[in-house]
## 1
Amino acid sequence: MPALEMTDVRKTYRSGDTEVMALDRASLTLGDDEILALVGPSGSGKTTLLSIAGGLLTPSDGSVVVGGEEISSLDAKALTRFRRDKVGFVFQSVNLVPFLTARENLLVVAEMGRRDAKESRQRADTLLDELDLGDRGGNLPNQLSGGERQRVAIGRALMNEPALVLIDEPTSALDTKLGEQVMELITNEVKSRSTAAIIVTHDTRMTHYADRSVEISDGVLAA
Ligand SMILES: Nc1ncnc2c1ncn2[C@@H]1O[C@H](COP(=O)(O)OP(=O)(O)O)[C@@H](O)[C@H]1O
Ligand SMILES: [Mg+2]
């Protein structure tokens, strides 16, 4: 079963009197352990596509099937559950909870998913180790570097064993070397768990970490 099947998805935003067509009949199929790089310039619709795939935004038209479930018709409550159980997000602006330590930032999502507490602690520690944050678990976000915060966000996205991981420009704030390290970490983590992922980037140097790349411009996916 594909991790994601988007068919003829449109998204328009109203902005004053004008309508912006952010996605125009986008169709995309993602295999259940495939890593896709979505590449396009600023304003091309990348974040909109990710948000629709993850159930954060409702499409204006079209169908979005994640893990066999049509999500475009789910109500708000079902969507919240869907996002919590099925999707891991890593956003461009790393939204860690500022008053929780790195480790607590991972554990809080496990709690929301009502996971077993002991297993969750083990899982958090394993992830922190794998992400080379084993000795940073007790640090608050403002006691971490940008690259470390980015890695905590990756760990948090993987905490609930999502079927689909959505990552928005993970390397935009990092220099090239750090960006490559983060990409390698992400792809290793995702591959070792046979999870599907979409990684948005405008940096074509990063696309070789993915199994496949698709270009988007002006809301249109390249065939
Ligand atoms: N909430 C919004 N309201 C109005 N227009 C928006 C909104 N979000 C995005 N857009 C517009 O939709 C287009 C695609 O945006 P976005 O998906 O954020 O692109 P990208 O992530 O590739 O930079 C852009 O023209 C942007 O200005
Ligand atoms: Mg964006």
Note: The CA atoms of residues 112 and 206 lie 33 Å apart.
## 2
Amino acid sequence: MIMGAEQQAAKRVGIIGGGIMGICLGYYLSKQGVQVEIFEASPVLGGLAGPLVLEDGTAVDRFYHAILSSDAHLRRLCEEIGIADQLRFKETKMGFFYQGAIHPMNNMVDFLRFPPLGWIDRFRLGLTVVAAQLVKDFRRLEGVNVEDWLIRLSGRNTFMNIWRPMLKAKFDGGFENTPATYIWARLVRMSSARSGANQKEEAGHLIGGYPTLMKALAQKIEAAGGKIHLSCPAQEVVIEDGRAKGIRLAESVAEFDAVVVTMQTPIFRRLIPAAPAGYLDFLAKTDYIGIVCPLIVLDRPLTGFWTLNITDDRIPFTGVIETTAYIDPKYVGGHHLVYLPKYTAPGSEWAKMPDDEVRATWMKYLKMMFPDFDEKSIRYFLIHRERYVEPLHYLNSFDLIPQVKTPVEGLFLSTTAQIYPALTNGESVSRHAEQSAGVVLAGLAARQAVG
Ligand SMILES: Cc1cc2nc3c(=O)[nH]c(=O)nc-3n(C[C@H](O)[C@H](O)[C@H](O)COP(=O)(O)OP(=O)(O)OC[C@H]3O[C@@H](n4cnc5c(N)ncnc54)[C@H](O)[C@@H]3O)c2cc1C
């Protein structure tokens, strides 16, 4: 049962984390009349989707973020809060870097020209894309190893030339325990972004990036009487007699009717030492992929491709992502933004590599890929790292996904680890936040009914 707005008026919910999840959740709860308070550790909202201010004062994405034209939930949210006019979409190009050359991969013609694949391979690769669209119940793929699935559909040659290098790059080596749902979800998302008979990609962004969404949602939350506290890390969720009472801050405890944590499970675990030991053990089973992500800010375009997938094992980065292929440089200080991400497995040596070594290694391979690359075109070279980027889901591990409602009364978890098999992005996170808000409201209503 979901309470009406008047019944909710007195309810107070504390939300920890001011990323897309926390802010969207705060918005959906305050729409229902709940008084929300959001606590964010850093001085800005946004988390992984937050901004970075360059030396010249230009704010750009710390990590690369695209909104796809098919991101229906996110687009609806933008309309609802009055920022849809800030969305920009553009036809973009994707390609592969294979044996020293760039090969576009945007339509049937490109596909048929792709050199490492013979006619049968191409046909089977196309079949893989079609087969993915036909799978409606992902649970069927939960226990199927991604390698077996792809070899069966695409064939060994395509697997070795295309899929294996991509999987190796994404998982920083090993992917033996990865279910087929991983590639399935990607194929479904990318196909839905291609529109019309010409099958062109449409990627886009909000002018100002996700921070534009954050600001607009924050205004709505505050207009509804909610509060947002920046530079305000939660120290602990106060749990007494099996119930979440509030949030311990640096110098006080803020009391709430319910507390929602939106961070990744290892951070959540550290905040709830008083939760049942069995639950803490259960949460420890979720792990995450991390990232080392250099951003090179250039005075000219590099490839003109939004994404260049790399199928060369020697190159440490996963891809070349040029966000100014779809963001008009006029919105980002006239710069051209190229991200060179390296995903890192738990314990990866790459994550520990000092910045100067990362820069030297990355430059060596960038020059190998683009012999004419002129280092003078670099305006800034920045390196960002994160340990918890994307949850890792292993074969048959569906039951290890934590629920929004936790065993502690009044304590809820709304986190990216619960988004599966969809990929974690603004679309799925905002959708999940709305669903989690429903669970929190139902929990509050149930308590009110009992009390
Ligand atoms: C390299 C990369 C590329 C991506 N590409 C895309 C893309 O193209 N399109 C797209 O839509 N999405 C993309 N994403 C995904 C998107 O950024 C994430 O799914 C989304 O930002 C997750 O939001 P979140 O709120 O769940 O988590 P987070 O962003 O991690 O937010 C958690 C927040 O909690 C705060 N916090 C931590 N500890 C505390 C504490 N103790 N007290 C208070 N606050 C605390 C953190 O500071 C942070 O702000 C990408 C992500 C990365 C890293």
Note: The chain has a mean pLDDT of 92.
